[in-house]
Amino acid sequence: MILNLNGIWKMKCTDENNWYKANVPGTVFNDLLNNGVIDDPFYRDNEIKALEIAAKDYEYKREFYIDKELLNHKRLVLCCKGLDTLAEIRINDKPVGRTKNMHRTYEFDIKEYVHEGENTIHIIFESSLEYVRKKNEENPLWGAEDAVKGFPHIRKGHCTFGWDWGPQIPDLGIWRDIFIRGYSFGKLDDVYITQKHEEGKVGLLIKADIENFCGELLDLEVTVTSPDGEVIASKTKTKDNKNHIYLDIENPKLWWPNGYGEQPLYTVEVKLKNKDVELDSKKFRIGLRTIKINRQRDEWGESFEFVVNGKDIFAMGANYIPEDSILARCSRERTEYLIKSCVEANFNTIRVWGGGIYPEDYFFDLCDEYGLIVWQDFMFACAIYEVTDEFIENVEEEAIDNIKRIRHHACLGLWCGNNEIESGWFYWDFERKARHKTGYIKLFEIVLPELVKKYDPNNFYWPSSPSSGGGFENPDDENTGDVHYWDVWHGLKPFTYYRNFKFRFVSEFGFQSFPSEKTIESFTLPEDRNIFSYVMERHQKNGAANGKILYYLSETFKYPKDFSSLIYVSQLLQAEAIKYGVEHWRRNRGRCMGAIYWQLNDCWPVASWSSIDYYGRWKALHYFARKFFAPVLLSVNDEGTQVEFHVTNETMENVKGSVVWKLRNVKEEILKEGKVSFEIAPLMAKKLKTLDFKDVLSSYNDKMETYLEYRLYTEKGIESEGTLLFVKPKHFLLKDPEIKAEITEKEDRYLISLTSKALAKYVELNIEGEDIIFMDNYFDLVPGNEKVIEVEKDIFTSVKDIESLKDNLKIRSLFDTVEQM
Ligand code: BMA
């Protein structure tokens, strides 16, 4: 029996007398905002006030009614799925317990504290901010520079203290479900399901631990429902805590990551009963699959690749950070939008980065459903910890809670100890305190791997990202394990540098851009709209980043004429940079087996490495991702006047088709053209052809006015296409493309058909007053190739008819970013 305590509570700052209405689950910042007590911390420079607010203590309370039936249970347990972070729980004014880790689930026996009728629960939160400040004075610990000093002292999502893309808003509150549960006869303590894959069947072993309070024989029932609704069941009588139940699934339907097959899910329900009365139950949705990391010595070093159901997967995706600095505002809908956006951009993998939180159950449900492999970090990043026995004990509980919660998901690809701490010790040698280094080894190379082995033995543990396997052995080694490659961007190396490395698996590399103008408008006044203004700089957390954007801009594009153009070209730079890396690594499929860029999303409106901004708006990079992660990719490796065509086939089928290319000039004459037929086996990359245009591109001037257009056709139509310039875009003699858009209606859709008179680079469509994801955007338009963009009518909010669509459709391309003389 459950008494849900979610819902309306009261909250106040402990220094004040005024109580406000609060929502649980929720957080202090969210409640204060809803009550109009504080200003939106995301607006202009309001973030500065956040630290004052977070420096105080807060109190939550509510009444709850306990009836006879609930009270009569042998055990009453208060279950707190998430308290952020330092909380004291009181029932009817008596202390019930304390918490110190936002990542843990806490349970308290409360039978002795409650009575029949009205009861009161109080939860008092001590400021995490003040706590880490104080602790750090006593014992300074190194942590990422953009966060509040001392954050490694507390088990709370690190980036809530700030990061190089995140504000400092160390919020507090009852951030996950809270309820009371009564048990009388027994309880299902733990259920663990393992799969044995054999020819034509999968055997399920269900281990159920029960707690028996009554000493009688209880019934344990297991039901497995297939994706088509077929039911297989098994039943046993038990008194003991350890139970094993076997079930065979014949003709199993296997789960695959996105792009390789379907995502069928089976439901496993385990029930504990006493003479037909259900005492407890647990429900899991599992996918039948094997997933391994293949690490094999080879001619280059050691491979690092996901192998799903025996097939090697080239991991394509991005790094995921918390979706909102005010966690109360996260929702399944928002996460689904994001995960869908990943799949729409052909992702098959997502990395949950260690500086945030272990995501909600629905995050993993969605990754199961949409087919994203999850690289799951434990929540440790860029920090040194004081690894005391107490700290280890706390972390062990956290790890067990989360391993048990997440381990059954089909999407779970691997567990990783932390983000960038092993490499931190290796490259920066941190503070050289021996005990901290020993603590590191204990935590990430002994304690966590042992826990994974014990509670989730079939999933892989990797000590750190990046790593070559641990022990501070060259963690960022090009030829072993995963790497974070930041010389392009942090190291100001040109995009071409990506091509110097054939990493085994790139789990981070990134490039910043500004969010869209609509997003900038949400936090600025018109006078702030200059990237060096005080307000814009407050929404740029990486100190040197604006300078870097401008540096790369100077290398690539002409000086943009205004703010709007600068925002737009910043996104183009980002998209081109990441494309450059990904295409190169996909061309080297086999040696390199993963390209996970930094970062997918934002937790507030900010300039950052994200491809989707805080409001869910796709930057140019996300549209590019859809193309550079296309299952069948045509990419071009160019060197001077030479071009190589490469095809990468990330599908499970043989692909046949042809590549059609044209070498054109700005007068739109075709200088050369050709066609190459190809056939490529599943899951491989190959070079199709090398061409040399040195006869027509003998001078720099020739290169300034010549471009290559290429397209890959299969029986499905055009699957991959692009254009290639032989000089940097700033030197290319772009002509006015005079883009023409014709809009027609076809049933429930508008068709926007676009043509141009000259090459148009990075054509951007935008409909004023609307937020729309187009089927394509930031594409090149070549004269003679009509591009038709279809838009469903019912996605519009303000556009009512074709005329208003015409009025509000704004189109620009690179040509428009500079003043024309
Ligand atoms: C990485 C991440 C983050 C950081 C990003 C950009 O290495 O792990 O810590 O936000 O770089 O600097």
UniProtKB/TrEMBL annotation:
Q: Which residues form the signal peptide?
A: none
Annotated localization: Secreted
**Glycoside hydrolase family 2 immunoglobulin-like beta-sandwich domain: from which residue to which, for each copy?**
188-289
Gene Ontology, cellular component aspect: extracellular region
Q: Does the keyword Glycoprotein apply?
A: yes
The record's section on InterPro entries has: Beta-gal/glucu_dom_sf, Beta-mannosidase-like_N2, Beta-mannosidase_GH2, Beta-mannosidase_Ig, Galactose-bd-like_sf, GH, Ig-like_fold, Ig-like_GH2
Domain spans labelled Beta-mannosidase-like galactose-binding? 9-176
Q: In which pathway does it act?
A: Glycan metabolism; N-glycan degradation
Residue span, Beta-mannosidase Ig-fold domain:
734-817
Q: Which family does it belong to?
A: Belongs to the glycosyl hydrolase 2 family. Beta-mannosidase B subfamily.
Protein's name according to its UniProt entry: Beta-mannosidase B
**UniProt organism field:** Acetivibrio saccincola
